[in-house]
Each structure stands twice: as C-alpha cells, then as structure tokens.
Amino acid sequence: MGDAVVGTCSWTDKTMIERWYPRDVSSPEARLRYYAARYDTVEVDSTFYGLPQRRFAEQWVERTPPGFVFHVKAYGMMTRHEVDERSLHPELREYAHEVSDRGRVKHPEAAMIERSFQIFAEELAPLREAGKMGGVLMQFPPFVTALYADKTREALEYIEWATGQLARGLPGSPMLVEFRHPSWVTGDQCEQTMRFLSDRDLAYVSVDAPQFPDRSTMPAVTAATAPWAYVRMHGRNRDTYFARTSSAAERFDYLYTAEELREWEKPIRELAAESERTWVMFNNCKYDYAPRNAREMAAILGDAVAPRQGDVPSGDAVAGADAGSDGDQLTLGV
Q1: Which residue from 74, 159, 202, 294 has the fewest beta carbons nearer than 10 Å?
Q2: Is the pLDDT of residue 247 over 70?
Q3: Is the pLDDT of residue 150 over 90?
Q4: CA contacts within 13 A on the Cβ side of 256
Q5: Are the CB atoms for 12 and 325 separated by under 8 Å?
C-alpha cells in the first residue's frame, strides 16, 4: 500500500507569478522557496524546450528542503519531437540534421539524439546527487501511434532504447511514459501496452484531458505498471487544447471544480494501493489554478496523501490565492 503526493507542473508561469505569489515574493529564489514550503514536488517542463543547465539544477537543490522531488520533462528531441533550432545545445549543432522552413530540427542523426540524452543526464547530476531527482517524463507526440504493427514495433523499440539511455545517465530515475494518441489504450492494444511497460518497470502516465467526439485525446485510463504511478491533470478546456496559443498557460486554461476532482479520488486511491507512490501533477498552470486544484485534491485524498516533508507556514491560504517562480529556465509547460 503506497501513498500519493500532489504538486504542479510549473512554478514559473508568468500568470502564476502574477496571481499566486505574494507581491513580496519577487525573486526566483524566493518563489521556489515559497512553492517548496507548500508542496513536496514539482515538474520541470522547461527542459522540453531546451536541455537543462547544471547551474539551474544546483540552484533548485539549494532552494528546496530535504525530500523535495523534481520530476523533469525530457527534451523534445529525446521524445521524437521537432525542436527549435535556436534551442540546440552547442554540442548538438555538430551533428547531421535538417531544418524545416519553420526553423525546426528534423531527422537528427542517431548520434545526435544519443548525445542529447547524455547532456540531459550530465546537467541534472546535481539533482541526482542530492536525492531530489524524480522521474523523467517522456511525453511522446500524437504521431507516435499504435495503429499499425510496424509503427507500433518501431515506437516500442525506441522506448526500450531510451530506457537504456536513461538508466546509464540517471540510474534510479524512472521513465514516465505519456502517450498522446489513444490507440495505445484502445481495445486489445491497451493490455499489450501495459504489459510492455510493466515488464520493464516503466510508469504509464495517466492523464485527464478534454474529450472530443472523434476520440482524438487520451482517455482517463489508469494503470500501475511500475513502483511509481503518475497522473497529469491537463484541464478540460476543449476550446484551447488543440489551439495555437501564445503560451502553454493559455492552452491549459482550466479550473477544475470540486466535483471533477472527486472523479479522480477512487482511481488515485486504487493506484496508490497498487504502487509505492502515486504522483498527481496539475498542468493547468494559468493564474493560481494549478496550486489551488492541487491543494483541493490533497484535501479530497485525505489519508492517502503522504505526510508533508516540511511545514506549511502559518496563515497560508488554502488555495494559495495571494499573488507568484524560477530557477526554471522558461515559463512554458506542455
């Protein structure tokens, strides 16, 4: 029987800074300390857009208490996304690749992808050495599907290869696998997907997302396939989920109601019963929505929530509804 830990997928979004943090909490150091006094975990999403930098990882370690856990999102190239050429680490520019008209890196050579895994691990070493490195979120794009046998096999072979890369660079940091195409959990494929993950101790990432008539988004399927279970709450804003918005916060502009959060109480408790720890992360990081919903979810889960690593300062508002983020490199979350 395990427990649950609740947090958010950013502490640095611009609108979150403006709405959630008190006005006197105005520096990157103060914001992370403020956040870590209220939550025991956070997801670093900026690393999807550019490889992490050691100096930031060192600051994250210094600014958080013992027991605090950072889950880190994989760099886009590591999950088969096209990345902005401007974001390339200087070392990666030496490898063969193409660039699209939009300035996106296409068809990187295998050695380039492998080196991105190595740099990712090297720069995050301070987190691992301090015992604050959680899982690596591998969020695959919607075009990685299980619709055809050859494509399914190719995707699974890549995940297996990536597992080895992470095991070498960040031993002890589990891979958290988030699919973005529902074919992975449709019909007989669902059992096959979960068996593949569980045989390798890879954590299936359960998601809450808007649902559409064409079933184009991931359904709310839960499964404990590893010692850790992981849930990401993306919000249910159907108008913005597929839109080209000016920021990720606009895309995930959604405040869950108490009733919607309670829909997840039973599934999360079941995950906690089947795993050592279940992480529940809110990605609706516009305004104070994510920290507010995280606090509400923790209250709903009650005794299933792990004891706090630190004490919340007296007088803390339940929703964190004051006005505040970073050592994080960017303020985006996907």
Answers
A1: 159
A2: no
A3: yes
A4: 27
A5: yes
d(CA 10, CA 283): 7
Indicate the average pLDDT of the chain: 91
- How do beta strands 83-84 and 104-106 pair? antiparallel
Compute the distance between CA of residue 120 and CA of residue 54 in angstroms, rounded to an integer.
9
The CA distances from residue 55 to 107, 182, 218, 314, in Å, are 30, 38, 36, 32
Q: Report which of 230, 252, 249 is spatially closest to residue 239, judged by C-alpha positions.
A: 252
Contact present, 124 and 167 (Cβ < 8 Å): no
- Rg of the Cα trace of the chain? 19
* CATH class for the region spanning 3-82+109-304: alpha beta
* pLDDT band at 214; cut points 50, 70, 90: confident
Neighbours of 125 (CB within 10 A): 15
Please determine, for residue 189, whether its predicted confidence score (pLDDT) is greater than 80: yes
Q: Return d(Cα 102, Cα 306) in angstroms, integer.
A: 45
Please say whether the beta carbons of 325 and 28 come within 8 A. Answer: yes
The whole-number pLDDT of residue 245 equals 66
Q: Are 20 and 324 in contact (CB under 8 A)?
A: yes
- Alpha-carbon distance 250 to 240, whole Å? 7
- pLDDT, tens only, 292-305: 999 999 999 999 99
The alpha carbon dihedral of 42, 22, 302, 185 has a sign of negative
Closest by alpha carbon to 284, among 6, 16, 4? 16
Domain boundary assignment for the chain: 3-82+109-304
Beta strands in 22-152 (DSSP E): 41-44, 69-73, 83-84, 98-99, 104-106, 133-139
What whole-number distance in Å separates Cα of residue 232 and Cα of residue 206? 6
Q: Residue 124's closest CA among 166, 95, 78, 163?
A: 166
7 DSSP assignment: E
Cα 96 from Cα 36, distance rounded (Å): 41
Q: Give me the pLDDT at residue 262, please.
A: 98
Both structure tokens of 5: 């830990």
| Coil, helix or strand at residue 233 | strand
